[in-house]
Amino acid sequence: MHPIDPKALALRPFSVLDDGWALLVGGVDKPNPMTVSWGGLGTVWNRPVVTVYVRPTRHTYGLLNAHPEFTLNFLPEGRRAALDLCGSLSGRDTDKWSAAKLTRLASEKVQVPRVGEARLAFECRILADFDFDPSRLLDPAVEALYPQRDFHRAYLGEVLAAYSD
Ligand SMILES: Cc1cc2nc3c(=O)[nH]c(=O)nc-3n(C[C@H](O)[C@H](O)[C@H](O)COP(=O)(O)O)c2cc1C
Q1: 124: left (phi over 0), alpha (psi -120 to 50) or beta
Q2: Ligand 1 close to Cβ of residue 74 (< 6 A)
Q3: Atom 10 of ligand 1: nearest residue by CA position
Q4: What is the pLDDT of residues 90-142, one digit of tens each?
Q5: CA 34 to ligand 1 center in whole angstroms
């Protein structure tokens, strides 16, 4: 992987997460990879921003709230099993790095590591977060996705470094 200007990336914005999934890593002392497929890549406050959405029930939620940085890592297609594992087990009781045979790689710009096996990765500093307000969800089908009322928290992370193969 080599550093790349985020503006030079050629991606399919509506497929890269929805179809490809990614590993969101939060935490410094005990970093933890969690699979995500909701999110976005774009521009906020004139900066390149990665947005991820995390339910309060995730171990990752506490990690992001405790330390305002994350990395987002896209794996090669052959590593779908690692994504399945990191999207079904919790870092509360499992070391997902060893369980999924993933390597921690020190980041350049943030204290949270990247995933060594990634083919595309972002190092991000959280600029803002907010919780979905159920009174502002205008489509009942969306609210129906929250039977436990565990509305996602959105984290807007400024891209400090991007890497691509
Ligand atoms: C394909 C896939 C996509 C997922 N996307 C998200 C997501 O965007 N946000 C979220 O909160 N959970 C998402 N999850 C669920 C978490 O990955 C899962 O609950 C995980 O075990 C939480 O890990 P943690 O407790 O270590 O944080 C997804 C799971 C899968 C399999």
Answers
A1: beta
A2: no
A3: 54
A4: 999 999 999 999 999 999 999 999 999 999 999 999 999 999 999 999 999 99
A5: 6
Q: What is the dihedral sign for C-alpha 136, 69, 119, 91?
A: negative
- Tens of pLDDT, residue by residue over 37-81, are 999 999 999 999 999 999 999 999 999 999 999 999 999 999 999
pTM to 2 decimal places: 0.98
Q: For residue 125, what is the domain's CATH number?
A: 2.30.110.10
Ligand 1 touching residue 91 (CB < 6 A): yes
Give the chain's domain count. Answer: 1
Name the amino acid, one letter, at 4.
I
User: What's the average model confidence in pLDDT over 2-23?
Assistant: 97
User: Does the beta carbon of 32 lie inside 6 Å of ligand 1?
Assistant: yes
Domain residue limits at 87: 2-164
Is the CA virtual torsion 5, 7, 9, 12 positive or negative? positive
- Overall average pLDDT of the 6-24 stretch: 97
